[in-house]
Amino acid sequence: MQKRLLPFLSLLLVIWGCGEAGVQSDISKGIEVDPVDVQLSVPALLVGQDIDETPPTQVSTGAIDISDNDFSEYLDDATSFTINSISYSIINFPSGSRADLDLNIDIAVAGGALQDLLEILVQDAQNNSEDVMLYTADAPGNVSPTAIQALEQALLNSQTFEMDIEIIGRNVNLSQSDVDFQIVFKFDVTTRLQLD
């Protein structure tokens, strides 16, 4: 009797959960931003020497549009977006060079005004080739909650956003005058869907 009753009760629960409002579902996906090209430079006379800091350099992700991403098929049914985490990795940092990176990251939604997202010191950038967490919803650290809300609203409204990054090299020792590498940002995002 119990074996027959349990499936029947489960079916009733599913039917009751659907109701007139339809079904809600959460879809999570990872969004990887195109690599951001970065160059640290020192005068030729200082190659191979320890330097306290380099002049600031500005880089940008360019416009990020998730409607071109895996979420595009769900945007019409989305009722909210949640950013679960933001991570980064540093790739192609030349061997024989080392640096800490002072990152000041701002965001702009749909070409609007910049707002602070976070500041962080990345120690030993040459050793950060694996994903490193900048933000998680459970442990936001020093990430601006206002900026996270702006990003989530931008995703819901199918708006683009851009990350502008000021980078200062600290405790730098470069094997050549110009050192090129890339920073890759990844977002783990959940969208709540209302399906009729």
Topology readout:
Blueprint: H1 2-18, E1 23-32, E2 36-41, E3 51-53, E4 57-60, E5 78-91, E6 98-109, E7 115-122, E8 132-136, H2 145-156, E9 161-173, E10 178-195
Antiparallel strand pairs: 1-10, 2-10, 3-9, 4-9, 5-8, 5-10, 6-7, 6-9
Total helical segments: 2
How many discrete domains?
Answer: 1
Please give the oligomerization state of what you see: single chain
Helix content bin: 10-25%
Specify Rg, calculated over alpha carbons: 22 Å
Describe the biggest sheet? 5 strands, antiparallel
Shape: elongated
CATH architect. name: Sandwich
In the predicted model, the low-confidence regions spanning at least 5 consecutive residues are: 1-17
The string of secondary-structure elements, in order, is: HEEEEEEEEHEE
Task: Write structural notes for this entry.
- With 196 residues, the chain is mostly beta strands.
- The chain has a single domain, classed as Sandwich (Jelly Rolls), CATH 2.60.120.
- It has 2 helices and 10 strands.
- Strands 1, 2, 5, 8 and 10 form a 5-stranded antiparallel β-sheet that branches. Strands 3, 4, 6, 7 and 9 form a 5-stranded antiparallel β-sheet that branches.
- The N terminus is likely disordered.
